[in-house]
Automatic annotation (TrEMBL):
<protein>
    <recommendedName>
        <fullName>Argininosuccinate synthase</fullName>
        <ecNumber>6.3.4.5</ecNumber>
    </recommendedName>
</protein>
<feature type="binding site">
    <location>
        <position position="260"/>
    </location>
    <ligand>
        <name>L-citrulline</name>
    </ligand>
</feature>
<feature type="domain" description="Arginosuccinate synthase-like N-terminal">
    <location>
        <begin position="5"/>
        <end position="166"/>
    </location>
</feature>
<keyword id="KW-0547">Nucleotide-binding</keyword>
<dbReference type="InterPro" id="IPR014729">
    <property type="entry name" value="Rossmann-like_a/b/a_fold"/>
</dbReference>
<feature type="binding site">
    <location>
        <position position="125"/>
    </location>
    <ligand>
        <name>L-aspartate</name>
    </ligand>
</feature>
<keyword id="KW-0436">Ligase</keyword>
<dbReference type="InterPro" id="IPR024074">
    <property type="entry name" value="AS_cat/multimer_dom_body"/>
</dbReference>
<comment type="subunit">
    <text>Homotetramer.</text>
</comment>
<dbReference type="InterPro" id="IPR001518">
    <property type="entry name" value="Arginosuc_synth"/>
</dbReference>
<feature type="binding site">
    <location>
        <position position="124"/>
    </location>
    <ligand>
        <name>L-aspartate</name>
    </ligand>
</feature>
<dbReference type="Pfam" id="PF20979">
    <property type="entry name" value="Arginosuc_syn_C"/>
</dbReference>
<dbReference type="GO" id="GO:0004055">
    <property type="term" value="F:argininosuccinate synthase activity"/>
</dbReference>
<feature type="binding site">
    <location>
        <position position="176"/>
    </location>
    <ligand>
        <name>L-citrulline</name>
    </ligand>
</feature>
<feature type="binding site">
    <location>
        <position position="88"/>
    </location>
    <ligand>
        <name>L-citrulline</name>
    </ligand>
</feature>
<keyword id="KW-0055">Arginine biosynthesis</keyword>
<dbReference type="InterPro" id="IPR048267">
    <property type="entry name" value="Arginosuc_syn_N"/>
</dbReference>
Length: 414
């Protein structure tokens, strides 16, 4: 009888390299690895592919998903202005579903019945992987070697040395880092003391905003909420993010230091840097202010809040998230035009906007000649919008609760 196969999300690092052999020993299954490039940089996919085979994988699947990630995941976050807890542009949360897609594809291709990942039992990522996997493949089972098969860091080091695995065991980073083209997440180590300020070595996508180079002016053209041109040059979503990472990163834009509510109930300290994401979002938000109907924009803020929570909580493939996507995409119909922005010293400041689909009407807005706004309508408008409060205030007065009346100090002294 053919052996069962486990499909393992593989980073090429120590823990997942050891997991290949360890899963085999513990479950008797063959291991197929899957490495996905979401713009995390680092080693070549071919090097990672070969390492997996050298560590005992029977098949090693690699995918360059950078464009797919930028187009189908990061752009939706941009169109949503999706920030968890009003701050975090969902960097890691966005990358898990695209990795999941490739894991499930590989499971189908190579006949895997179990999908494994290298997450601990304490974070959000385990939830994102497993919810995603079962949403795309309800018949698949999930396995976390760290959580379920006691694969600790110390054990991984000794296992790798004992089996002479082609992976470095000495390099130790004090932080747990997850990065992709949308940004970088840094946690653990001395950052776990909330009073400790991040030191310089924490950052790599951004330079110190306190010592910026000269201001950098950038023109970004959007089409339906997607950046399509930067400084006159056509760009793909991936190129737009990369270009803005470079330029906003040089100005120290997009550093975020927050205490965050994790899904498992704990609060944790997180540092992020997302220069491109935050600069693009600043531009996109301003273009929405120019082009979006007021009521649609107000409602979209609420949708965006819920959408961000769903994405954070591993519900990317859920029915509600899909319905909210449809709303968000519908709102982008007229979010087209150009934004001029100055990047400097940690700030991305919009200085100009123009759009053929703008709702700004100069003749209605101007206080100069050419004003077409009929001010006589304002009287009745105010009369009616103030009516309910006026009626309530009159009742208050009747019952001696004259909140509406300022309390006059009439005491004359005795
Ligand atoms: N707390 C962030 C999130 O849940 C970042 C997770 C980063 N993952 C990591 N292994 N360092 O989205």
């Amino acid at each position: 009888m053919a052996k069962d196969r486990v499909v393992l999300a593989y980073s090429g690092g120590l823990d997942t390299s050891v997991a290949i052999g360890w899963i085999g020993e513990q479950t008797g299954a063959e291991v197929v690895t899957v490495a996905v490039d979401v713009g995390q940089g680092g080693e070549d996919l071919e090097v990672i592919r070969q390492r997996a085979l050298d560590c005992g994988a029977v098949e090693s699947y690699v995918a360059d998903a950078r464009d797919e990630f930028a187009e189908e995941y990061c752009m939706l976050d941009l169109q949503a202005n999706g920030l968890y807890m009003d701050a975090y542009p969902l960097v890691s949360a966005l990358s898990r579903p695209v990795i999941v897609k490739h894991l499930v594809t590989a499971a189908r291709q190579f006949g895997g019945s179990v999908v494994a990942h290298g997450c601990t039992g304490k974070g959000n990522d385990q939830v994102r992987f497993e919810n995603g996997i079962t949403a795309l493949g309800p018949d698949l089972k999930c396995l976390s070697p760290v959580r379920d098969l006691a694969l600790t860091r110390e054990f991984a080091i000794s296992y790798a040395e004992k089996h002479d695995l082609p992976i470095e065991t000495t390099k130790s980073n004090p932080f747990s880092i997850d990065q992709n083209v949308w940004g970088r997440a840094i946690e653990t180590g001395y950052l776990e003391d909330l009073w400790n300020a991040p030191t310089k070595d924490v950052y790599s996508y951004t330079d110190d905003p306190a010592y910026p180079p000269l201001p950098d002016e950038v023109h970004i053209v959007f089409d339906k909420g997607i950046p399509v041109k930067i400084d006159g040059k056509d760009v793909t979503p991936l190129q737009a993010i990369e270009e803005m990472n470079r330029r906003a990163g040089a100005q120290g834009i997009g550093r975020i230091d927050i205490v965050e509510d994790r899904m498992v109930g704990i609060k944790s300290r997180e540092i992020y840097e997302a220069p491109g994401a935050m600069a693009l979002m600043a531009a996109h938000k301003e273009l929405e202010r120019v082009t979006m109907d007021r009521e649609q924009a107000r409602f979209k803020q609420r949708v965006s809040l819920r959408w961000s929570e769903l994405v954070y909580e591993g519900q990317w493939f859920s029915p509600l998230k899909r319905s909210l996507d449809a709303f968000i995409l519908d709102t982008q119909e007229y979010v087209s035009g150009e934004i001029r922005m100055t990047l400097h010293g940690g700030r991305a400041e919009v200085t100009g906007r123009r759009s053929d689909t703008s709702l700004y009407d100069f003749n209605l807005a101007t206080y100069d000649a050419g004003d077409t706004f009929d001010q006589s309508h304002a009287r009745g408008f105010i009369e009616l919008t103030g009516l309910t409060s006026k009626l309530a205030a009159a009742r208050d007065m009747k019952f001696g609760k004259g909140e509406a009346m300022p309390k006059l100090n009439l005491s004359q002294g005795d």
